[in-house]
């Protein structure tokens, strides 16, 4: 069995003049010091760059009815494979997943 690395290099970030790095992937533009993670908690600063902690790891798989997805009138009555990874940048107060 092969194991995945704990982190994976990412794109969409840049260094700031004050020594922090800024993640540019979402509108939150998290500014990180060494060892910090962004609000999504899947991107963070390690060794002076932004890395992804969830690369290649799924948090769930499920077969769902197509009607549950935002695919209006797309093969009605069929099934679709749903999967996702950890991480969200919304931080909604009512969220059941936080």
Please characterize this protein's 3D structure.
Helices cover 0% and strands 31% of the residues. The chain has 98 residues and is mostly beta strands. The chain folds into 2 domains: 8-52, no CATH class; 58-86, no CATH class. Strands 1-6-5 form a 3-stranded antiparallel beta sheet, with no helix packed on it. It is elongated, with a radius of gyration of 17 Å. The two termini are 31 Å apart. The mean pLDDT is 87.
Q: What attributes characterize this protein structure?
A:
single chain; 98 residues; mainly beta; 2 domains; three-stranded antiparallel sheet; 31% strand
Outline the secondary-structure elements:
Layout: E1 8-9, E2 13-15, E3 21-23, E4 31-32, E5 43-46, E6 49-52, E7 60-65, E8 79-84
What kind of sheet is the major sheet? 3 strands, antiparallel
Helix content: under 10%
Which term fits the overall shape?
A: elongated
Could you state the oligomeric state of the chains shown?
Answer: single chain
Number of helical stretches of at least 4 residues: 0
Strand content: 25-35%
Contiguous uncertain segments of 5+ residues: none
Arithmetic mean pLDDT: 87
Within the largest sheet, what's the order of strands?
1-6-5
Q: Give the distance, in angstroms, between the N- and C-terminal Cα atoms.
A: 31 Å
The total domain count is: 2
Radius of gyration: 17 Å
Order of helices and strands: EEEEEEEE
Please count the beta strands (DSSP E, at least 2 residues each). 8
Return the structural class.
mainly beta
């Amino acid at each position: 069995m092969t194991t995945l690395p704990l982190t994976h290099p990412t794109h969409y970030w840049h260094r700031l003049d004050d020594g922090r790095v800024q993640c540019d992937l979402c509108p939150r533009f998290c500014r990180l010091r060494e060892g910090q993670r962004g609000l999504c908690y899947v991107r963070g600063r390690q060794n002076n760059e932004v890395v992804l902690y969830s690369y290649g790891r799924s948090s769930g798989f499920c077969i769902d009815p197509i009607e549950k997805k935002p695919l209006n009138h797309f093969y009605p009555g069929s099934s679709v494979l749903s999967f996702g990874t950890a991480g969200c940048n919304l931080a909604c107060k009512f969220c059941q997943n936080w």
